[in-house]
Amino acid sequence: MIHLINWRLFWIESLNGIMLASLYFTVASGFTLIFGLMRVVNMAHGSLYLLGAYVGYEAQLATGSWVAALLAGAAAAAALGAVLQMAFFSWMQGQDLRQALVAIGISIVLADLMLWQWGGTTYQLTLPDSLNGFVPLLVVRRYSMARLLLVAVAVCVGVALWLLLTRTRLGILIRAGVDDRRMVEALGVNVPLVFLVVFAIGGALAGFAGVIGGSVLSVSPGEDARYLLSSLIVVIVGGMGSIPGAALGALLVGMAETYGLAYAPTYGVAFTFLIMVAVLAIRPRGLMGRRA
Amino acid sequence: MTARPIFIAGGILLLLVYPFLLNDFWVLQVGGRTLGFGTIALSLVFLSAYVGMLSLAQMTVAGIAGYAMAYFTAPMGGVGLLLPWPVAVVIALCLAVLAGLVVGAIAVRTEGIYTLMITLAIAVGFYYLTLQNYSMFNGFTGFTRIPPPHVLGIDMAQPKPFFYVSLVAAALCYALVRWVVRTPFGLALQAARDNGRRLRALGYPLALPRIAAFGLAGFIAGVGGILNVWLNGSISPGSIAITPTLDVLMASVLGGMLGPEGAFLGAFLFTVVQSFAIYLVPPERFNTVIGVIFVAVVVFSPDGVLGIGRSALHRIAPGRQPLSGHRDVTTRGTEAPTSLPATRPTFEADGQSTGENHHAQ
User: Fold this and answer.
1) What is the reported pTM?
2) Rounded CA gap, A199 and A103, in Å?
3) pLDDT tens string A41-53
4) In terms of Cα–Cα distance, which of B295, B307, B302, B293 is closest to B329?
5) Coil/strand/helix, residue B332
6) Which of A12, A119, A246, B160 has its CA 20 to 30 A from that of A182?
7) How far is CA B298 from CA A88, A106, A210, B255, B338, in A?
8) What is the pLDDT of residues B25-62, one digit of tens each?
9) How far does CA A289 lie from the centroid of its chain?
10) In chain A, what's the furthest Cα-to-Cα distance?
11) Which of B297, B343, B352, B357 to mutate to test the interface with A (most CBs of A within 10 A)?
């Protein structure tokens, strides 16, 4: 009987790990997309997540609709991402460390301004009733539908990005820009505009993840640092600029974190870092990272 | 001759009489804080200017030394072990060097932006570890009431003695950096920074000197960490969280990462802004002020105040160019377009990385 209960716990924790990995993937996919095309390490990515969550919360207060919250959060973060690219990153193209430093400064200012606006309270968005139930499952008996929704969202985001990158003109331009930016410019493509669009997409993904994370978990100051860190580790492990790499990295990091917290609470975070160090020792560019 | 030695002598004299010119707040909270914090920033500037690796894990290494001091001189709630303070200092510095070597070993195969990301990840990871762990770090509380020692009957907690202790420690670290960069080891580091491939082709190892440099930077950060812990009298996860980690970076960039003076200049400016921002904005908005200043510096003068000051100084008192090349880490692109890591976001699992890594050992 005892070991049955333990198995149930194990599967619940596994599902929680997949849930967390899904959230991490949704956040990190935008981060890695921006890096892949522009070599910009957007250290303000966590701020975009947080802004999306807060704006989504406000939108839900105003309209009462969760879908409106999703759209508003994604739109706000997309707009901020585009503004950052236009105001700062665009004219520093190629100076990657300088861009990262500027982004760090901006993230500090944004975190402080958001603290000013929304205070230190923890907010939670309300999910629609249709998502508030539980799904009956084997072994674990039942699991929160909202958390399963997160997994579905991550799969959809992955598929959508894949379709975007492989089946659309924009995706072709993005991939061409990654491979040979100068050649694409020489062919008369408006590369700055493509960059702007990619930054908006990356921001939208972060804001979208923020609203979902703020509904399934919660949102409070400091979350920006947490999701920036998880994005960093996910792409360091998975390989910068690679979407499948982000999926793989997110799974590894999410699982390590969840099992770590469940089975070794005081050293939980160490597992994540052991994974990162082990990957770096074998493949300095990450599991899916590649060189030209 | 030139006016340069007069400038230097004047500066030293000013530092020596500083505690007698101003009140205790300026001596301890501005002077003492600048020297301790500046020593931590010095370790970052050393790595950035001479090794070409921007490490954000320096506050972490300083925190390890600080935690070790707390653990061995101010046990709390059954956590810790009381030792004589000189022993604790030696242990703390050894642990800081060890931590520096570990960070170096993890980061050595990376370059540029990757170094920044990995060291930031290490820093935040260590913060979470101290927050979760009670057996060594005493969790959220950390350690309080950590006494600076009494030496020869003088209480080091008093402003003037503490200032001079900090001054001597900081000056020794500064001299150490100045000396090391002129040794063959330091020259090899700068050569590796400027052209790693060429150095490797000449048969020099790249990784070992770099890891050693991280160890040296760990020692310097450890000295700063001990001074910090004595000044604050406490250490907790909050002292090594993401904000203090980035504070070290901001101070370094503010001063200018051209040379070791920039670290102390930046720490001084940072501390002054921190102390006097309350007269301009509500105290809790300090981060906005310093963040805006930092962004402005990176945008308009990537070499910080030192970059502005140095060009002015050279006009007044032309002297010998410093040995370090004027290579600013923030405006430097990658070595060559061909060395850009090109990773394509595609979904085919083709083309596994077979190209050799030119930063591998």
Assistant:
1) 0.85
2) 13
3) 899 999 999 999 9
4) B302
5) coil
6) A246
7) 11, 11, 29, 11, 26
8) 778 888 889 999 999 999 999 999 999 999 999 999 99
9) 18
10) 69
11) B343
